[in-house]
From TrEMBL:
Pfam families per the UniProt record, alphabetical: LRRFIP
Protein name, UniProt field: Leucine-rich repeat flightless-interacting protein 2
UniProt source species: Arion vulgaris
Ranges of biased composition (kind: Basic and acidic residues): 55-73, 81-95
InterPro entries: LRRFIP1/2
Keywords on record: Coiled coil
Keyword Coiled coil included in the entry's annotation: yes
Domain of life (superkingdom): Eukaryota
Family: Belongs to the LRRFIP family.
Gene: ORF95697
């Protein structure tokens, strides 16, 4: 009885400890979720700001390109008028050199513009990939937080079951020791257990058997080995009649025959 009460007390203490651990775990999880939500909001705001800056840079780049094209066109018209005025004084060879140089510069300008446009496209692609990777990283952080919470819960359940099993093992060892002591005492006393017709053992003292004219009730009997052998040889009689015969006809044996009865 004391082992059962101590075991239940330990379980109540374990439940109180785990209730405190649950509360602490819930607080930690809530704080982690709040921090993650704040990081997500800050990241979203920073993403919008970066997209606006990129759009602004693209607009400025378009304006610069338009201005450069207009400047090149005006420069070409001015150089054309200058060439017309110089035609009368310069030779045809210089005019050809200027035109070749102009074509070369225009070609370089077109190549530079194409390279700039290609770099802008690559930049936009890289920015998109960076934003996509940030979103994936954020999702992985959320999954990692969820896995950590599940892991802590599993560890908590494992510790609870481990402590409960340990407590039950201690109780089982105590019961085994008690059963060993009882079996040893019965064996040293030279008694054996007989089951009744229903197989329902109940503890009863031998004095109660003597008070009912030597006839024990229909129950299990704890008797000596001599009485057990005698009852096995008796035929056509019930357990109570046989024991009554032992008490009546064999008083020397019956005085030590029945120590106690066990019935439920």
């Amino acid at each position: 009885m004391s082992s059962q009460s101590s075991g239940s007390g330990r379980r109540r203490i374990n439940m109180q400890q785990y209730s405190a651990e649950d509360e602490a775990l819930n607080i930690i999880s809530k704080e982690a979720e709040d921090r993650l939500a704040a990081k997500r909001a800050a990241r979203s705001e920073a993403r919008e700001i970066r997209l606006k800056e990129i759009e602004k840079q693209l607009n400025e780049s378009d304006r610069v390109n338009e201005h450069t094209n207009e400047h090149a066109a005006s420069k070409g018209s001015q150089s054309g008028s200058r060439h017309d005025s110089v035609e009368s004084s310069d030779t045809d060879i210089k005019d050809t050199d200027f035109k070749a140089e102009l074509r070369e510069l225009e070609m370089k300008y077109r190549v530079a513009m194409m390279s700039s446009a290609q770099l802008d496209n690559e930049k936009q692609s890289l920015v998109y990939q960076v934003e996509l990777l940030k979103d994936q990283l954020e999702e992985q952080n959320e999954e990692h937080t969820e896995l950590q919470r599940d892991y802590k819960e599993k560890c908590r359940q494992y510790d609870f079951q481990k402590r409960d099993i340990k407590s039950m093992e201690q109780e089982l060892n105590i019961l085994k020791q008690q059963m060993t002591i009882k079996d040893k005492l019965i064996q040293e006393s030279g008694f054996v257990i007989f089951a009744n017709d229903k197989g329902e053992p109940v503890l009863q003292k031998s004095s109660q058997i003597n008070s009912s004219n030597g006839a024990p009730p229909a129950s299990s009997l704890l008797v000596s080995a001599d009485v057990r052998d005698f009852l096995r040889k008796a035929e056509g009689v019930t357990l109570g009649t046989a024991v009554a015969g032992v008490n009546t006809n064999n008083s020397g044996v019956s005085s030590q025959a029945v120590l106690q009865t066990c019935c439920v």
